Amino acid sequence: MRRAPALSFLLVTVFLDMLGLGLIVPIVPALMTAVTEDATAAVRWSGLLGSIYGLLQFVVSPLLGRLSDRYGRRPILLASLTCLGVDWLAHAISPSPWTLLLFHALAGACAGTSTVVNAYIADVTEPESRARAYGLIGAAFGLGFVAGPTVGGLLGAVDVRLPFFAAAALSFANVAYGWFVLPESRPGDRTTPLTLRMANPVGSLAVVLRRPVLGRLAYARFCADVARMTHQSIWTFFLTYQFVWSTAHIGVVMAAGALAGAVFQARAVGPVVRLLGDKRAAVAGSLLGVASLVGTAFVSVPWMLYVLQAVGVLGSVGGAAAQSWISRSVRANEQGTVQGALTGIGAVAETVVPVAAGAAFGWSLAYASPGWVFVGAAAFGAVSALLLAATPDVRTAPIE
Predict the structure, then answer these.
(1) What is the dihedral of CA 369, 373, 374, 375, to 10 degrees?
(2) What gap in Å lies between CA 64 and CA 111, rounded to an integer?
(3) Residue 347, CA distances (Å) to 48, 93, 299, 389 in order
(4) Which domains are seen in the chain, by residue range?
(5) What residues contact residue 202 under an 8 Å CB cut-off, 6+ apart?
(6) Residue 357 and residue 335: Cα distance in Å, rounded?
């Protein structure tokens, strides 16, 4: 197994995924307005595109994870990357919102990148090294988040569809790179059954959640996802309301935070988790995240916001540690299945939370208390920390 080229490819894949997404974030409103020729319709279609992507990802991710256990990680990952490239190309050339909806649904159905990447890392790293590897994945994610919107804004100033061509080209280039560089991490096991119970999202989640240890970790993961998505969905609106910051100021602060997080995850997560262990690092990271959210809810001066951002960066150790813990709790022949179920859980949060958090933020503004949304997010983070603390650090039984 050539582990160095494999890990390099995975890091490039995650970086390019986030870069591609970031490229188009500043451009989607202008593209949808150009396609629909109506600003109100553009907002509705943009929301529908996001929802259909999350819904299809929830429905299909468990199947993709199971397929990666049965047929191997490499073909599923390359197929997912190809679908993503097709989706961006469709954005670039489509004359109709219905065409965009069709291809974005296809991309959601093929969105197995994170599922297979997490399973692949579990295949090629020793348990004591996984937190560091997942930290590197988080760093690549953050760097893509920093670079994407900047490059997308520059390309979009030339032509509104140019960022989508660029995102498609990056995806297809990554597929070609992976075709020649990426080895298979684990040969498929054709004896792995493809039953309806394991291939549908409800059945696969039920199988995972009913296992005592893994079920608690999955519930903790969901609560952490709710807290994270609430923060991501509301943060820019909160800063605009609380401090009357410009979009440029907010963008600089977000980029600085993402860059600091990427450096921390790349350099410090591995040593911290080796020192504390997966469980204690996961609990500590969750508690730091809760402290950051509670502080943000009541922040009144801008300088305190930077301190709270730093606390949140330190808390990012929790995600890598929890992911490492989960990967140690399952057998090699079920990594894809479990990661697919967890991707489905994340898709639920990503689909539902932005709408709910937006409604809650609008309600809080009516009472001049915008920070209370972050208190709600902190409550979910606290439940996640409690679940992690109450979970024994033992290996679970295999999935049936």
Answers:
(1) 80
(2) 9
(3) 15, 27, 30, 25
(4) 3-181+197-390 (1.20.1250.20)
(5) none
(6) 32
Helix axes 212-243, 372-390, angle to 10 degrees: 160
Q: Among candidates 258, 244, 381, which has minimal Cα distance to 309?
A: 258
**How is residue 389 written in tokens?**
């603390």
Rounded Cα distance between 44 and 35, Å, is: 13
Q: How far apart, in whole angstroms, are the C-alpha atoms of residue 46 and residue 97? A: 9
- Rounded Cα gap, residues 282 and 272, in angstroms: 11
Q: What angle do CA 204, 206, 211 make, to 5 degrees?
A: 105
pLDDT tens-place string over residues 178-195: 888 888 887 777 667 666
pLDDT tens sequence across 45-98: 776 777 787 788 888 888 888 888 888 889 999 998 898 888 888 888 888 888
Only one residue has tokens 């989960």, namely 326
Question: Rounded to an integer, what distance in angstroms lies between the CA atom of residue 335 and that of residue 278?
Answer: 18
Triad 223, 229, 374: Cα angle to 5°: 80
Task: Please give the Cα distance from 162 to 170 (Å, whole number).
Answer: 12
Query: Does the pTM exceed 0.90?
Result: no
The model's confidence at residue 398, banded by pLDDT at 50, 70 and 90, is: very low
Distances 190 to 75, 194, 258 between C-alpha atoms, Å? 14, 9, 41
**Distance separating alpha carbons of residues 64 and 204, to the nearest angstrom:** 12
